[in-house]
Automatic annotation (TrEMBL), chains A, B:
This is Gamma-glutamyl phosphate reductase. GO terms for molecular function: glutamate-5-semialdehyde dehydrogenase activity; NADP binding. GO terms for cellular component: cytoplasm. It is found in: Cytoplasm. It comes from the Bacteria. HAMAP family: ProA. The lineage of its organism: Bacteria, Pseudomonadati, Bacteroidota, Bacteroidia, Bacteroidales. Keywords: Amino-acid biosynthesis, Cytoplasm, NADP, Oxidoreductase, Proline biosynthesis. The keyword Membrane does not apply. Its main location: cytoplasm. The keyword Oxidoreductase applies.
C-alpha cells in the first residue's frame, strides 16, 4: 500500500484530538472560518483552475463553483458547528452493580473517518468541521474535478492547525486517483468508518468493495400516498412542495400513489405542478383522470421503468391503488427506505402506515422535503443514511461518535 | 441465486412480526421453551447423529453436545428473554418544531437478521429468541457439523409457530454449505444485518466478503496493565481472575503489562497462576524477575509472536514498560479493542487510561472477565461487538433494533 504512511499518520494524529477540550475545538473552528474568508482570493483562484477544465454546460459545474458569497456561507456554517453542543463525553447509560462495579457507557469519537465524495469542494470544509467537532480525524478522497480547490482548502486548514500547534494530519486529502480510493476501501487497520457522499454509482461501488464499516447515504426513491381520506388542500400543497422545492435532492417526491376513490381529485392535486412544468408519467387510471386537465405535453403514460426511479428532475410518476395495503405493497417493493409520506385524515391509516413502512423517515401530512438535519433540529448534517445500522436518516454530530464502556471497580472478581 | 425464494419468504414473514404485541411474543417464547423440554428426546437423538460424525477428542465436540440439562438451561434462557422489557416502540428523541411538526425517533426492528455460526446448536435457540423478542426475522446459517441438531431445533420452533398461526419463515435455517454462505453475504435486498459468531477466521471471511452491513463479534486480545501505583492484592486477584476464570472466552487476559518499578512484585502477582498451570511467556526483565519464583517448566522467554496473540488457553505473555505511556503504546499496537484493564490507585493514571485506550470496555481495578451482557445487566447477549459502528462491546436486545423517524404534520410545507 502506497498510502500506508499517510493512514498511519492520521491515526497517530487522531490521538491528539482526545486531548482537546470543546473550547479548544471551537477556537480552531472559528479560526478556520476566518481563514476561509481571509484566503478567499487564493481559494477562488485555485477553484478557477478546476472550473477551467470543466464544460460550463456540465451539471457538475455549478456544484464545483465557489464564489465569495459561497465562502461566506461556508464560514458561517463552520461557526454554526462551533455553537453546537459537544457530542463527546456524554454518559449514555449508567449502572452500579450489586457488587459495586460502576458501569458507564460514554460517547467517544470513532477515531478516523474516511469520506469519499465528488466534485463539491464545500464538502471538504463541511466534513472537516463536523469531524473536528466530534473529535475525529478525517481522510478525504475528493473527486479529481475538484482537486485544485480541495488542495487549496486543505492547505488553508493546515495553516490554521499549525498555528495552533496541532498535528496537521488530523485532516488529510488523498490523491484524486482510483488507486487511492481502492486503498482507502481496505484500510481496516486505520479507518474506523467510511461515508461515501455522491451519486448512487459511487455509493454502490463503495458498498460492493469496502471492507471497512460503511454508512450508505443518498439515494432516495420517495413516495407520497394520497389516501382515500386525504385532505385535498393539504395534499395539493404537500405534493407540490415535495416535488418542486428542489428537484435535485434525495428527499424529492418521485412517485405519487393515489387511492382509486380519489382519482377525481387528481387534476386539483396536480394543478400546481404544471406551473413548474413537471412531467407526469401516469398509470392508465391516473392518465385518464388527468387527460384534458393537465398540460398534454407534460403528460405521459407510465412505463415499468418509471416506478422505482429516482428522477432528480421535474418529473414524477403516478400509481393508482385500490387500498392502503396496495400502497404499502408498492412502497415495500420500490422504496429506497429514505422518506415516505401519507396524506390522510384517518388516524388508523396514519398509524398503520407509520408501523408498516420501512423507511428512515415516515411522514403523516407533511412533505418528504423536510428530511434534512437542520430541519430536524440536529444543527448540522454529514449525510442522510439509507441503511439501518448505526444511523438512519439525517446524520449529525452524535451519529459520527461511538461509545466505550468504562467499568470502575475496587478489586472485584467474577465468580465462575 | 438458489436461495432467493427463501430470502423473499423471510422478508415477507418479517412484516407479520410488526403486528405482534410484546405479550404475543412472550407467549411464543414460553411455548418454544416448553417445546424444547417436551421434545428433548427428539432433539438429543438428532444431536447424537452429529456427535457420531465427530471425533470426541475434537475441542468442538463439547460445544456440539446437547444434554437434558443443557436443554433445560436453554429453555430457562428463553424464558428469561421473555421477562426482559421490549426494546421496540421506545421514543428515543422527541421534538416539536416551531412550525408545529412533531418529530419522533422511535425504536423498530431491523427486519431480517442473518447469523453465521459454527458447531454450537444452542445458538439456534438463542438467536431465535433474541430476534423474536426484538421483532426481527432471522436467517440462520449453522455449521455443517451441527446440521442435524440445528434442523431438529428449527423443526421444533416451526411447530410452535404453526400452532400460533404464525408464518414459520420468521426463522429459516439455510443449507450448511459454502454456497449458502456466499449467497447470504450478498443478499443486500433481503437481509438488513449480518452477525458472524465464531472463530476469527469465520469473522474475517465475512468481513472481507459481505456486502450487507456486518457487526463483527469476537476476537479479544486483552491486556491488563499493572501500574507503578497498582495495589498488589487487587492486582493479584484481578490478573488471576482475568486469565483463569475461563480461558476459552474472548474476554480472557492475554498479556500482562507490568511497570518496571513493580517487577519485584511479579512473583506475588503471578503466584496464583501457577496453581492453574498457566504458561507465562515473559520478556527479558519479567523473565528475570520470575526466574526461581515461578515453576520453571511453565516459564518461557517471550517471542514477538507472543504479543498480539489471543491464546484462548492457559497461556499468557508479560511485557515490561517504564511508563504508562509505554503501556498505552503497547495496547494501541496490539489490542483488538475488546477489553483492556488498568490496576492503579492513582486517579490521574486511571483517567488517562480510560481516555486514551481505544476499546469497547475499559476497566479500572476490575478484571476483563466481566465483559458480558448478563454481567453488565443487559439481560441477554447476542455477541460482543469489536467494531465501533452501531454497537460496541456486549450487544443485547437494544443493539439488534434500529429506529425510524416519524414526522407528523398538518399540511406544513418547507420554505425554499
Amino acid at each position: 500500500m502506497n498510502l500506508i504512511h499517510t493512514f498511519e499518520a492520521v491515526q497517530e494524529a487522531s490521538l491528539q484530538l482526545l486531548e482537546l477540550t470543546d473550547k479548544d475545538i471551537n477556537k480552531i473552528l472559528h479560526a478556520v472560518a476566518d481563514a476561509a474568508i481571509e484566503q478567499t482570493d487564493f481559494i477562488l483562484s485555485e477553484n478557477l483552475k478546476d472550473l477551467d477544465r470543466m464544460n460550463p454546460a456540465n451539471p457538475k459545474y455549478d456544484r464545483l463553483k465557489l464564489t465569495k458569497e459561497r465562502l461566506q456561507s461556508i464560514a458561517s456554517d463552520i461557526r454554526n458547528v462551533a455553537t453546537l453542543p459537544s457530542p463527546l463525553g456524554r454518559t449514555l447509560k449508567e449502572n452500579t452493580l450489586p457488587n459495586g462495579l460502576r458501569i458507564r457507557r460514554v460517547s467517544v469519537p470513532f477515531g478516523v473517518i474516511g469520506i469519499i465524495y465528488e466534485a463539491r469542494p464545500n464538502v471538504s470544509f463541511d466534513v472537516f468541521s463536523l469531524c473536528l467537532k466530534s473529535g475525529n480525524a478525517c481522510i478525504l478522497k475528493g473527486g479529481s474535478d475538484a482537486d485544485c480547490s480541495n488542495r487549496a482548502i486543505i492547505h488553508v486548514i493546515h495553516q490554521v492547525l499549525k498555528h495552533f500547534q496541532l498535528n496537521p494530519h488530523i485532516v488529510e486529502l488523498l490523491p484524486a486517483t482510483h488507486e487511492a480510493t481502492a486503498e482507502l476501501l481496505h484500510a481496516n487497520q486505520y479507518v474506523d468508518l467510511l461515508i461515501p457522499r455522491g451519486s448512487s454509482n459511487l455509493i454502490q461501488f463503495v458498498r460492493q468493495n469496502a471492507t471497512i464499516p460503511v454508512i450508505e447515504t443518498g439515494a432516495g426513491i420517495c413516495h407520497t400516498y394520497f389516501d382515500k381520506e386525504g385532505d385535498l388542500q393539504k395534499g395539493t400543497a404537500i405534493i407540490n412542495n415535495a416535488k418542486t422545492r428542489r428537484v435535485s435532492v434525495c428527499n424529492a417526491l418521485d412517485c405519487l400513489i393515489v387511492h382509486a376513490k380519489r382519482l377525481h381529485d387528481l387534476p386539483q392535486l396536480c394543478a400546481p405542478l404544471a406551473n413548474s412544468h413537471v412531467i407526469i408519467c401516469a398509470d392508465a387510471p391516473a392518465y385518464a383522470a388527468l387527460q384534458g386537465n393537465y398540460p398534454q405535453e407534460l403528460l405521459k403514460m407510465a412505463t415499468d421503468q418509471d416506478f422505482g426511479t429516482e428522477f432528480l428532475d421535474y418529473k414524477m410518476s403516478i400509481k393508482t391503488c385500490s387500498s392502503i395495503e396496495g400502497a404499502l405493497n408498492h412502497i415495500q417493493h420500490y422504496s429506497s427506505k429514505h422518506s415516505e409520506c401519507i396524506v390522510t385524515e384517518n388516524p388508523t391509516n396514519a398509524a398503520l402506515f407509520c408501523r408498516k413502512v420501512d423507511a428512515a423517515c415516515v411522514y403523516v401530512n407533511a412533505p418528504t422535503s423536510f428530511t434534512d438535519g437542520a430541519q430536524f433540529g440536529l444543527g448540522a448534517e454529514i449525510g442522510i443514511s439509507t441503511q439501518k445500522l448505526h444511523a438512519r436518516g439525517p446524520m449529525a454530530l452524535e451519529e459520527i461518535t461511538t461509545y466505550k464502556w468504562i467499568i470502575e471497580g475496587n478489586g472485584q472478581i467474577r465468580k465462575p
